[in-house]
UniProtKB/TrEMBL annotation:
Record lineage: Bacteria, Bacillati, Bacillota, Bacilli, Lactobacillales
Signal sequence, start to end: none
Entry GO MF terms: heptaprenyl diphosphate synthase activity
Enzyme Commission number(s): 2.5.1.30
Protein name (record): Heptaprenyl diphosphate synthase component I family protein
Record-linked Pfam families: Hpre_diP_synt_I (PF07456)
Membrane-traversing stretches: 6-23, 35-55, 67-92, 104-128, 134-160
UniProt KW keywords: Membrane, Transferase, Transmembrane, Transmembrane helix
The keyword Transmembrane helix is annotated on this UniProt entry: yes
Organism: Carnobacterium maltaromaticum LMA28
Length: 185
């Protein structure tokens, strides 16, 4: 994989995440019993980036997606909520991924990301409202986060196994990942 191929791939992932995020934002909330809950379809791109790119590049995808989505239709408050949720989710998924595929599947990693995304957003809401009572909404959002995370994980698992380009990037990243783990021992 050349440097230009990798840059194009990063840009395409970020663009796909932005488009998916903007489309999802325009859809009314599908869950009447959990106001504000969404599937988080753009997190599909984050999972694909985590499994097909090294840390620095996958982090670039996440930041580009956050910034561009905000610039194309967000506000400062949506940026704060999105940033807290996306970063907590991203780093949490990276940590859980380190347990290895024998212990946690892509679906489990995605479900972890769904829960952590909601925790990050509720933490910002608590900070803005200056009360921790907002966190009482956590059980409902955690349940929704698990369901959404499982759905996104299933979709990511399917794409990573059936899309040849993703398989190729994953194979290159796997070799890179094995080389860096060998250097740290």
């Amino acid at each position: 994989m050349t440097k230009n191929q990798k840059l194009v791939y990063i840009a395409l992932l970020a663009a796909q995440g932005v488009v998916i995020g903007l489309i999802e934002r325009s859809i009314p909330f599908p869950f009447a019993f959990a106001p504000g809950a969404k599937l988080g379809l753009a997190n599909l791109i984050t999972i694909i980036a985590i499994f097909t790119l090294p840390f620095k590049d996958s982090f670039t995808v996440v930041w580009m997606r956050l910034l561009l989505t905000t610039l194309l239709g967000g506000t400062l408050s949506t940026f704060l909520y999105s940033c807290a949720g996306a970063l907590l989710s991203y780093f949490g998924m990276l940590i859980v991924k380190q347990l290895g595929p024998k212990r946690v599947s892509i679906i489990g990693i995605s479900a972890t990301g769904g829960i952590l995304h909601n925790i990050g957003q509720l933490a910002v809401a608590s900070w803005i409202a200056q009360t921790w009572t907002v966190m009482l909404y956590l059980p409902v959002l955690s349940f929704m986060g698990i369901l959404a995370g499982v759905a996104i994980g299933i979709a990511a698992n399917y794409l990573l196994e059936h899309v040849e380009t993703l398989r190729n990037f994953r194979a290159v990243y796997g070799r890179f990942d094995q080389q860096t783990k060998g250097e740290h021992k």
